[in-house]
Amino acid sequence: MEDHVPPPEGHDDVILKALERQKLAPVSDANKEKYNTRPAKYWDQFYRWNETNFFKDRKWLHNEFPELVHASSQNAPATRIVEVGCGTGATSFPLLSINENPRLDLVATDYSSKAVECVKANPLFTSTPVGSIKASVWDLASSDGVLPEGVEENSVDIVVMIFVLSALHPKEWMNAVANVYKMLKPGGRLLMRDYGRYDLAQLRFKEDRLLEEHLYVRGDGTRVYFFTLDEVATLFTGKPHVPPAAALSTTEAVEEMTGSSDSGLHSPNPDDANFSAPSSAVLSTHSPKPGSAESHDPDVHRWIPKDAQYPGCPPHPLFDIEQLGVDRRLIVNRKRQLKMYRVWIQGKFVKVTSAAIDRAMFLGA
């Protein structure tokens, strides 16, 4: 059911206590180096362990991002879509299964070679009914600007990144955004969804899991960061502010939760595994109340310098915000008398055209 949901009583105290507990016992410096220098190793292990027991397909994407459905319609123009951080193809294969566009070109990429193996083993990959699909290993945060195999600069219509940026170290974000910018056509879209600040999964992390501010390592060795709206906006536009016209609605959702409150929280993409799909009505722009626990931290991470020029890119703004908001879900576990928040950030960004860049540079001169 949906409702306007105030935070549970004492929610600020829960946040502060969780953060204080985590800071008292962070990950050791030796282990930080281990997790940060070989992240692909842990993703390979993850997909090896979960090869036959993976998350449900993200069919909710068709509701949240109708651009994907339009691209798969019979009369749609030639469209290239790149799924970054494809995992086992949880975005590509549901789209391919409904595709009627013979000129739809899907490209699935992942940092993990094991994930790409899983994609290539899917029957829809080996025998595609309509359209085409390719898959390759690719490092989104590559500093040399190399794009996925077969992808040229300014050749992609839509990039999809679902729970991808959060898996990177903050120092890798600028390279990641630069590489997405390079592959998109002017006017091309980035569709993204990721973890929001003070999500239940963040607050449930125990000792020896905090790598640095709001960046954690799961039990399987994979990393996860929890974003604010200002951070996401600044990453793509150079400014922390969300234009009012781009803000999503202010409705939130309440869901009943059964079973263990910790079930699946510390695995990648827990929303697909344990919670029902969102609808476009449950997104909001959310600003912490002054004095609340959520307002104590800086809004933008130090690795996101405002108005910085990214490698191989023109000055900001690189993207316009088409939509950006927070999906806040109050999860009620009546059996254990618990009220908890899931928090996700969702956005649509449009690559700025060269004319708009020239105009912005002229006005800033």
Automatic annotation (TrEMBL):
EC class name: transferase
Chain ranges of the Methyltransferase type domain: 82-190
Biased composition (Polar residues): 249-266, 276-287
Alphabetical list of InterPro entries matching this protein: Methyltransf_12, METTL2/6/8-like, SAM-dependent_MTases_sf
GO biological process: methylation
Biased amino acid composition, Basic and acidic residues: 294-305
Entries under Gene3D superfamilies matching the protein: Vaccinia Virus protein VP39
Record keywords, A-Z: Methyltransferase, Transferase
PANTHER family: METHYLTRANSFERASE-RELATED, TRNA N(3)-METHYLCYTIDINE METHYLTRANSFERASE METTL2
This protein's name: tRNA N(3)-methylcytidine methyltransferase
Species of the source: Serendipita indica (strain DSM 11827)
